Amino acid sequence: MTAAEELARRHRLQWWEALPWIASIACFFAFPNYLAFGAQVLITILFALSLDLVLGYAGIVTLGHAAFFGAGAYTVGMMAMHWGWTEPISGLLAAALVAGVIGLASGLVLLRTHGLTLLMLTLCTMALLEQGANMGAAWTGGFDGMPGLSFGKILGLFSFDVLYYRSQYLYALAALFLCFVIVRMLVYSSFGQSLTGVRENLLRMHAVGAPVRMRQVLVYTVSAALAGVAGALFTQANGYVNLAVLGLERSAGVMIVLILGGYGRLYGAFVGAFAYMVLEHVLAKAYPTAWQLGVGLTLVAVALFARNGVIGMIESLRRRFAGQGR
Amino acid sequence: MSTAIIETKDLCKNFGAIEVAREVNFRLERGARHALIGPNGAGKTTFVNLLTGLLLPSRGSVLLEGEDVTALAQAKRVKRGIARTFQINQLFRGLTVLENVCIAVSERLGVGGSMLRPAGKRADVIEEASRLIEMLQLGGDAGRRITELPYGRQRLVEIAIALGLNPRALLLDEPAAGTPSAESHILLDAIATLPRDIAVLIIEHDMDLVFRFAERITVLVSGAILAEGTPAQIAANHEVRAVYLGNALDV
Taking the model in full, what pTM does it have? Predict the structure, then answer.
């Protein structure tokens, strides 16, 4: 196979790309009692996917991505609370818009910097929003957030399912699928290829005449909008929003998810979110007092032995076997 | 006198108290084969950085086909036809050779920001990148990652990327540095067979290469031009011999 054919093949849809979606639908039928947990996994996948776009593909290091998750979460919360706007899908779009605008505005300032400065500024953006949400109690509910929110029927047909989370699960899955289609299109396009170029060598990217900062701001904005959708789904599925959606723990958590799954690999978000949350769930059940130790040890093992995450490990195993097969 | 493709007027650059470019007045003519030589630390790479916009001068100006581009960003100068290679490879190391060249070709064709079509389906970009890769005898390596290539082959990718930008002026910063002799002839052939409409400025320490390739030579010492002329004039210049060439060169 020539290099050109190999490149075209890599960008075509592969048969195994159907697996996560088939598995998600299978889980809906196989684990009806775990759909609340399943919906959280799907929301985390979407959040991790949005982070992968900036961190994995464009190489923009951020510890403040929860700012956009929180912006989306609070947008639908405040719309429902103060304006009685409970229509879910327009809520998602509004959340994407608000988070995207915050991404654009902060990106224009932040992305002039690199490295540790950038890292600190992303943290600052998140801290500013967190404090804003804390202090603007009249609008945001302050420290207590906004509990007991209810949302209208999805497409006017399906109510949010308080007990079994069936509609939440399918709704989150549909939103994740649509967002995934956008992300997949972006990362395999020439735009995505240029983002990888920015990640790999900034100096060279300038030297081939690419408008580097514009591309970075653009992808940061798209990523923020997607994180906003994830946040909005969180509020709609759970019926509450509080300061935890904007915290460092959420930002760091999603980064761990991505590192565990493998960043810059599109499906790393899926594997990472599933593995991390299932691990957390199982360990918390088995060892309610010391479960974090198990999660910590797993992460140490991944950092030491599988630096490109689970997907990276699978890739290197496949390469090794392919090498032996020759 | 016709308009030079690149011209500098009284170009100066200081890093604090250190002057790395001093009143440099230089012309790169259309289709030129021009070499820039000088001892280590003479300011050759800094001069290329000033031409490409990676550095801004402290004083003086850079003209591109007669138009002042001193304040123009690097990316915009690339669009106007200045391409370069780096002294130390600056490649997209995790990507394949084909992808490296495709990125350059996409930017030149203005499709680098296109979000809809998969890059793997852009036949125009891929065909052109493949042609350049073949031209530099990298065909067998097109699907390999940069990290899997020996250094000498990586130098060729540097040139392929620069050519992918379809430059009118190509600035080669020590293209043969670090290339083993077994591979350097491919590099030299590639440079020798560059289209004549591309003006080439080459920085090189390998005097065989310089005197074989260049039709005009500029000698830079301590940031200032010491001499300029044909290879024969430079080889006969006593001052240049004393400062840089020594007596080893026998032209």
Answer: 0.91
